[in-house]
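Researcher: Re-running this chain for the archive, since the previous output was lost when a drive failed. Same request as before.
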Amino acid sequence: MRKTYESIVNNGALRQIAVMLLGTCILAFTYYHINAQNHLSEGGFAGLALLGHYAFGVSPAWSMLLLDIPVILLAWVLKGRRFMLLALIGAVAFSLFYAGFEKYSTLVIDLHGNLLVAALLCGVLTGLGAGIVLRFGGATGGDDILSLLISEWRGWKIGNVFIVSDIIVLGLSLLYLPVKETMFTILAVWLAGKIITWTTTFQLHRPVKKVLPAAIPAQKVVAKTVPIVHSLRQ
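Model: Regenerated structure tokens:
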């Protein structure tokens, strides 16, 4: 484990971890301020955690972490220690961010009267947050890890795997949420899946610079022309 930690630090992964923390912060912000405050559900483990919150009052900050731990251990076996450590950092960071927002945030984003806007915001932000974490080699939780493993195994786009797994969880949402909120959640999940695919696959195309021939130094030009001038004078 010490070697894994040293390799992460030595390979410049501190920047990688910083970007992952940004992604998990975006996710935690969205789940608390948009999903939970407007009674929208979510797919994957986050959806199960939100259902636990609606049904039993359990904070998603800790229920998600409990769901994540077994899958993170599986990732250790299949993906190695480095990936496991990054996934653990992402899972713990999400729980801490969510708990912090839950306890200290005074921001209220009330979109009950316009759930379409809530669904669009949720889809864009969750897709962006999860996509950032996945693009930089980490995971925000167990459902991310499972989706990544299935994507690599079957060769499917990871965003599509998220959509399928999320729809299964959303079917359970009908037990606790009205149909209206569930339908808008499906829209958010679909949009998030598309954003995840785009975030994890897009490439920056830099313009190709034309390489101009190097200029000949003035001294070499003089050195070559002087003998020619002498020969002409003779």
